Amino acid sequence: MMGKTNLLRPAFICFCVMTVLCGILYTAAITGIAQIIFPKQANGSMITVTLKDGSKKEYGSELIAQEFTKPEYLIGRPMGTSNLSPVGKEQKDLVQERIDWWHSIDPDNTAKIPMDLVTASGSGADPHISPEAAQYQASRIARERNISEEAVEELIEKYTTEPFLGIWGEPAVNVLKVNLALDGLL
């Protein structure tokens, strides 16, 4: 029968070997492969814009939402997550508060507010909204920027992605890209 000290040494060696293999070598290999094969994605899918003076500036990630609340911008989904019941009073009150906010920012818009503008995504940081949610905002943005609604709709269409292979997912509008294009940066 082995003593406790006889079991500790092999356990410690196994722990050290697995730490080096899984914690260091595997991580370094996957990071290195990702940097070679998918460098943009491995570095956060950052949107980099070349400015008029030739310098470059990063404005954010294509994959993580940025918060916009000014009426001249396309506004995305509510930020943050919650574990509220979808049929509970707290969730209902929160949705009503968001509906009231949308009515306050654009009181002339009497269209039905798309659900993704009043409910947070599962991650709480979804950078996309539905084309319907973007279209709901087009007239307000055009009015605030003193441009045609058609110009806003063209940008929305330009930065709308279709479902992967035409079957997985739904069409989605990247909020940050539309806003950068509205500012003349893309």
Secondary-structure blueprint:
Blueprint: H1 4-37, H2 39-42, E1 46-50, E2 56-61, H3 89-105, E3 128-129, H4 131-145, H5 149-158, E4 160-161, E5 172-174, H6 175-182
Antiparallel strand pairs: 1-2, 3-5, 4-5
Task: Please explain how this structure is put together.
This protein is mainly alpha-helical. It has two domains: 4-41; 62-182, no CATH class. The protein is built from six helices and five strands. The strands form two sheets. Strands 3-5-4 form a three-stranded antiparallel β-sheet. Strands 1-2 form a two-stranded antiparallel ribbon. A hairpin with a 5-residue loop joins β1 and β2 (56-61). The termini are far apart. The model has no long low-confidence stretch (mean pLDDT 89).
Features:
2 domains, 186 residues, mainly alpha, three-stranded antiparallel β-sheet, two-stranded antiparallel ribbon
Question: Would you summarize the structure shown here?
Answer:
This is Potassium-transporting ATPase KdpC subunit. The protein is mainly alpha-helical and 186 residues long.
Mean pLDDT: 89
Apparent shape: extended
Q: Helicity level, as a percent range?
A: 40-55%
Strand order, sheet with most strands: 3-5-4
Distance N to C terminus: 72 Å
Number of helices: 6
The oligomeric state of the chains shown is single chain
State which percent range the strand residues make up.
5-15%
